[in-house]
Amino acid sequence: MTTTDPTPPDTHVPPPARPPVPPPPRWAVRAARVAAWSTVPSGLWRVALVLGVPVGVMEREEFLAGFPDNSPLLALAYVLLLGAVAEAASYLTLGLVRPWGEVVPRWIPLLGGRPVKAGLAVLAASLGALTVTFLWWVLFFGGLLTADSPDPGVSAGEALFVAAYAPLLLWGPLLAAVTWSYHRRFHPVRTVPESGRQHRTLCAGRPGTARARVKGCPVGMQARPGDVSRSGVPRADERGARESHPPDR
What is the pLDDT at residue 228? Predict the structure, then answer.
């Protein structure tokens, strides 16, 4: 007497693994590093202003007047928080060239160890590049260039201010370039071999016409008259075979 196992066989097919992602190019790594450091000079300038270091453009008391009771602690907390947010945002550019931009770090709850969705990362980085470019190029420096200045000259304090904030102009364009490199790594350009192009040309035709079928052509793709031999092989392929292997005489 034979018994059969009532348990059905396991037919679960694991999802296909993600193909290996090529490493980032060297220029993208360098651009990401520059973008990550572009917010540091302006943050140091603001901290120096709150601490009373003469920066030339604005006096410490004038800056503290915008806070309750002219509190230097609130002003210092504000500039430190603003600098931390800017640094964290610019530091995310490194994720486009680091392994944690491909797989979520395991220390992050609920998401650790999962692959990063490249499409969402590209979308978020593209929106970020547009936002910071508009913020610093149009609103900030555009406003400075169009503002009326009582003194036509440039003081040392103004030169220091421009030098501290000028690196922010690099943030948006560099982020956009690194985002494009990230997209190319996850979505490489697929090229069609020359033989495939020739075969596709031979298969081209008007669907529904009664023409000879080329071997390997998709359904609905008919060959042109004279392109197919009696054996069903494209004449171009037969002609190339005869040229590479001439008959013995």
Answer: 47
- Position 33 scores a pLDDT of 97
Which residues lie across from 248 on neighbouring strands? none
Q: Which tokens sit at 189?
A: 């350009």
Inter-residue contact 113 to 104 (CB < 8 Å): yes
Calpha distance 64→75 (Å, rounded): 6
pLDDT of residue 200: 46
- SS3 state of residue 98: coil
The pair of structure tokens assigned to 157 is 């304090």
Nearest to 38 by CA among 178, 231, 223, 246: 178
End-to-end alpha carbon distance in the chain: 71
Q: Which residues of the chain have pLDDT under 70?
A: 1-18, 147-153, 189-249
List C-alpha distances in Å: 192 to 28, 187, 234.
Answer: 27, 15, 19
Outline where the chain has alpha helix (H): 26-37, 40-50, 60-64, 72-91, 118-133, 141-146, 156-165, 168-186, 194-203, 235-244
Q: Which residues pair with 228 in a beta bridge?
A: 234
160-174 per-position pLDDT tens digit: 988 999 999 999 999
Give residue 232's region: left, alpha or beta (phi > 0; psi -120 to 50).
left
pTM above 0.85, yes or no: no
98: which 2 tokens?
A: 């680091």
**115 DSSP β-pair partners:** 103
